[in-house]
Write a structure and sequence with these properties.
Length: 109
């Protein structure tokens, strides 16, 4: 009986250690994912600002109001497309991070 209790206690201790190790690895991966996500957001903001300044420069050198309207329309169409692409990219990153985290917690590849 004492041996059985000792083995049960050891099994519980091993399970707790395994769970703690898994949670630690998952927390580390989440921190890495957060950094990657932050860098991607900064990269996207930088691209958006670059494109906005390019449109402002083009508008400043426009010959007339119709050129300004054309530049503005082109910029807005491109920005809309860029926003959709960027949102999709961030969504895919978050989905991948979630899959990785669940895989680590459930010991799946």
């Amino acid at each position: 009986m004492a041996d059985e209790m000792k083995h049960a206690a050891e099994a519980i201790r091993e399970h707790a250690k395994t769970t703690a190790d898994t949670m630690k690895a998952s927390a580390e991966r989440m921190a890495e994912s957060g950094s990657a996500l932050s860098l991607k957001l900064i990269e996207q903001a930088e691209l958006n600002m670059k494109e906005a300044f390019a449109a402002i420069r083009a508008a400043a050198s426009a010959r007339d109001v119709s050129d300004v309207m054309q530049i503005q329309g082109d910029f807005l169409r491109a920005q809309s497309s860029r926003t959709i692409d960027q949102a999709r990219e961030i969504g895919e990153m978050i989905t991948e991070f979630g899959r990785d985290a669940v895989g680590k917690m459930t010991h799946r590849p």
